[in-house]
Amino acid sequence: AQSVTQPDIHITVSEGASLELRCNYSYGATPYLFWYVQSPGQGLQLLLKYFSGDTLVQGIKGFEAEFKRSQSSFNLRKPSVHWSDAAEYFCAVGSDTGGFKTIFGAGTRLFVKA
Amino acid sequence: NAGVTQTPKFRVLKTGQSMTLLCAQDMNHEYMYWYRQDPGMGLRLIHYSVGEGTTAKGEVPDGYNVSRLKKQNFLLGLESAAPSQTSVYFCASSGGYGYTFGSGTRLTVV
To answer: Nearest 5°: CA angle at A46, between A28 and A7?
Structure first.
């Protein structure tokens, strides 16, 4: 069965510093991979998705993610973090059991310090 | 463009009471989903629908029922609420992979 692991429960970075959020997945075939962001009191918003092709994927708000099959990873990156990026980030993988179901990781909460 | 709208936003129930959560989408999406979000557990799929008139069980369906009588609406029902159902409930819709989420319903069962 597919699964997603986000090793870091929370991360703190300084404003202007670079960011990398880790994600590892378990999937037999080529996975469909996603990153979502959730601001406090809000629903989740899709940041980016990977289906196939170029392993470096660009998303909204200046985020990017790199698919590495050999490491079963799909880490999210941003070169320079802004205070407004403070939120919870979820990595997710598309299920292969139909219905376009999606399996979510437990999330990583990002804190940004001035 | 409202996207996905959930009502109510907050609710407190007593153990044993029933309620229905409503999800409405205006994007003509075929697929709709109900998830619950609990601290440290991410989102877990309760039920989903692949089209009008269809429903299917997800990962944690026990204690919940759903209906999709109209394409734009997906209802989640709790027949006899239990404290373990205290959670934040999210509805999502999609035309494939990549969801649009509602803003959630925070439910407390006392």
So the answer is: 55
